[in-house]
Specification:
The complex is a heterodimer of chains A (about 200) and B (about 80).
Chain A: H1 19-25, H2 27-30, H3 35-46, H4 52-80, H5 85-90, H6 94-100, H7 125-149, H8 153-189
Helix pairs in contact in A: 1-4, 3-4, 3-7, 4-8, 7-8
Chain B: H1 2-27, H2 32-56
Helix pairs in contact in B: 1-2
Classes of the chains: A mainly alpha (about 200), B mainly alpha (about 80).
Chain lengths: ~200, ~80
């Protein structure tokens, strides 16, 4: 189960509303490489991860991703709070306003709703961890594209924290990959095909 | 509000170090020095959180509550100005 903690992992403030940037930031709320995709990808993979270090890493990082989703949502909420309808329309959020007012909804920067097809859970631990390593790099690159677009030092501070977390997660998944190879090599020494799912 | 935010930021800082060591320990479960540091940080975090809860109400879903029900207390995390 999960227990909600009534605080953000890191401060999320904006100097002033900025609906144009809010629209871009939806990429990390409901886009392919968003925090939402990250969390659901890691949680989905955890059931069939064979090694304890992999199970704990998927659950712990998945949980941190949910905290990041909350931070990104908070930034968007503050960036569009109190912005008049005409300004939302001018910023390209007219379609969003029609369907969601100023509510948060998991869609990407172009308004495409979040979908499970963005993520994979293959049951092959090597393939799954490679997917996770790629996901962390894609999220890092997205944060860099977002930082390039913002002039708000408060927003940049929070996005820099989130970008840095992608790098740490990549590191931890890399260690899981090494541990998996050790585990599968041992399996192969026991005369099992390493391409097959490990049996225990 | 100012004191509450100052306390939250203190919790965030120590919690961050604890999260970082937590993730590290997942892949280095036998690193005794990291484990000791982690336990020290969690001990500090628990003390701070107990103090916060005493003043501002429940921080986690399943904690005891004073009257009236504390979980409904404003502000929620997204309505806080952290730079104030």
């Amino acid at each position: 189960m999960w227990v909600y903690k009534k605080m953000l992992e890191y401060p999320a403030d904006v100097t002033k509303p900025d609906p144009v940037f809010a629209k871009s930031l939806f990429s990390q709320f409901g886009g392919p490489d968003s925090e939402l995709s990250a969390a659901l990808r890691y949680f989905s993979q955890a059931w069939t991860m064979p090694i304890p270090e992999g199970k704990s890493t998927l659950i712990s990082i998945g949980t941190e991703e949910m905290a990041h989703w909350e931070i990104v949502g908070t930034l968007i909420y503050k960036l569009i709070k109190g912005v008049p309808v005409e300004e939302l329309v001018a910023a390209g959020l007219g379609a969003h306003y029609s369907q969601h007012d100023r509510a948060l909804y998991p869609h990407d920067a172009a308004g495409v709703p979040w979908m499970a097809a963005y993520i994979q859970s293959l049951g092959d631990p090597i393939a799954d961890i490679h997917e996770d390593l790629a996901a962390e790099e894609k999220a890092r690159a997205t944060y860099e594209h977002l930082i390039d677009q913002s002039r708000d030092p408060k927003v940049i501070d929070t996005l820099s924290f989130l970008r840095q977390r992608e790098i740490v997660h990549f590191q931890r998944f890399g260690e899981v990959l090494d541990l998996l190879y050790d585990y599968l090599d041992k399996d192969r020494r026991d005369d099992k095909d390493h391409r097959k799912k490990p049996r225990k | 509000m100012h004191d509450m935010v100052a306390m939250l930021r203190q919790i965030q800082a120590i919690q961050f170090a604890a999260i970082e060591l937590h993730l590290y320990l997942n892949t280095h479960p036998r690193d005794q020095r990291a484990l000791e540091e982690y336990n020290e940080l969690v001990c500090k975090l628990e003390q701070l959180e107990a103090e916060y809860t005493e003043r501002y109400g429940m921080l986690y879903m399943l904690q005891q509550s004073g009257f009236p029900w504390e979980w409904n207390r404003e502000p929620w995390p997204w309505d806080i100005n952290y730079s104030a």
